[in-house]
Amino acid sequence: MKAAARHLAQSDPVMRRLVKAHGPCPIAPKPELTPFQSLVRAIAHQQLNGTAAETILGRFRALFPGRSFPKPDAVLAASETSLRSAGFSRAKVAAIRDLARKTLEGVVPGARAIERLDDEAIVERLTAVRGVGRWTVEMLLIFKLGRADVLPADDFGVRNGFRIAYRLKDLPKPKALREHGERWRPYRSAAAWYLWRAADGLKKT
């Protein structure tokens, strides 16, 4: 992502400072996970810390011996009681079962098919799944697919990083953040990564 760092540094003096502090953005595609697997993981992580979510995911995978990760049809065949025993709430079980159903129906595309869709088409299709909102899909676009021009303007960390980096008193509104972010195209995903680093820097002080 050296091109992203170069573009951001040239287009925005505050980004220039963040690029100098943190170096090139390391975001890259992660093809080892299918969209189904990525979204199951995202649902598991909702409203939980990482350790708790990974523990639940480990129990979930253990329900399906012989596979590193269950297929959608196996998830649908499992009882709600069984899925709940892994530690999922009723709402998350409903979301995961709906995800499995929509994957089998083709609403959720497979790994190859999703690569052919543009960002907004992916958002439209995946937000049809119960419990999956725009933010969750934006995280998939950035961290699973490695899409270069996604700005999650509703993300608290991005907004807080912007507030810190640009020395604002209040959090920016998502609309204002999007307007400012026009200068970061076509590398808004990298810009979001630098804003997360700005927010992380405050936590460490």
Task: Describe this protein's structure.
With 205 residues, the protein is mostly helical. The two termini are 27 Å apart. Helix 2 (13-22) packs across helix 13 (188-204), helix 3 packs antiparallel against helix 7 and helix 11 (156-165) crosses helix 13 (188-204). The mean pLDDT is 93. It is built from 13 helices and no strands.
Name the descriptors.
205 residues; mainly alpha; Endonuclease Iii, domain 2; Endonuclease III, domain 1; 2 domains; 13 helices; elongated
Task: Enumerate how many helices there are, as a single number.
Answer: 13
The CATH class of the largest domain turns out to be Mainly Alpha
Structure class:
mainly alpha
Question: Which CATH architecture of the largest domain would you pick?
Answer: Orthogonal Bundle
Report the principal-axis shape.
elongated
Number of domains: 2
User: What name does the CATH topology of the largest domain carry?
Assistant: Endonuclease III, domain 1
Q: Which residue ranges are poorly predicted, with pLDDT under 50 across at least 5 consecutive positions?
A: none
Q: Share of helix among residues?
A: 55-70%
How much of the sequence is in beta strands? under 5%
User: Measured on Cα atoms, how large is the radius of gyration?
Assistant: 19 Å
- State the order of secondary-structure elements, H for helix, E for strand: HHHHHHHHHHHHH
Biggest pleated sheet: none
Number of strands: 0
User: How far apart, in Å, are the first and last alpha carbons?
Assistant: 27 Å
Specify the CATH homologous superfamily of the largest domain: Hypothetical protein, domain 2
Provide the residue-averaged pLDDT: 93
